[in-house]
Amino acid sequence: MICAGIDGGSRALKVVLFDHAAGRGGGGRGVLASAVRDQVVDHNALAEKTYQELLAQANVARSDVKRVIATGYARNLIKAADATITEITCHAAGVRHLCPAAMTVIEIGGQDSKLLRLDTGVGNGGGVRDFAMNDRCAAGTGRFLEMVASRLDTTLNQLGKLAERSTSPAIISSTCVVFAETEIIGLLASGVAREDIVAGVQHAIATRVAAMAGGRLDEPIVFTGGVAMIPGMREALAKALGKTVAMSPQPQITGALGAAILAGR
Q1: Which is nearest to 170 in space by CA: 154, 155, 185?
Q2: pTM beyond cutoff 0.70
Q3: Which residues sit opposite 107 in a β-bridge?
Q4: Which of 1, 129, 228, 260 has its CA 20 to 30 A from that of 183?
């Protein structure tokens, strides 16, 4: 049985075609095709175009797809979907498929961050026991890092290399991205090195996630979402939590993958 998951995120669209017959047993098996695209104004048009491209790539007829589930920020705008499921449930299912032993999921996306505690038992598909979410301010999200990269005249991929060269991470105390930007401008004007600013920002994001955890985290802990792909963030999280943090094998598509998996249930 072939199903599709479409994650209409705030910063990127992710689509996965999943073959449930091939995907039994987890470990990332069953993915026929996947794609990540920068989000645009017309979420539905981009979702439709990307979905059609994946069908052609996988040589799958649209009529062969039994069910399509949409998730994420723009899930209610995607007309190809048969139903919608929250991204919390979808990320849990996607991570548990890729990392069957996972007990805690940290997902940091473009506009929010989430901490999910999963039910015990590898075979339960990643049921969520409880969760915490920061969606009121971008200071703990990918949008914060995008702003920092722009202010420092670099790219997201280069932030990790800059942070590695830090000798004295700056203290970023603002909990609002607007005020944090003003704070960073002040640090630059004071001669603080770019390396120390980046290290300070990564520490600030990790500290906010650790605060959501409240000191109660079961291992293994798996880091997912677009921000997981930025070098240095996993290490910053591990340091802030005082625990080992593993990165999901395919961090950007876990929501869409979970949606496709849940579509078959």
Answers
A1: 185
A2: yes
A3: 114, 224
A4: 228
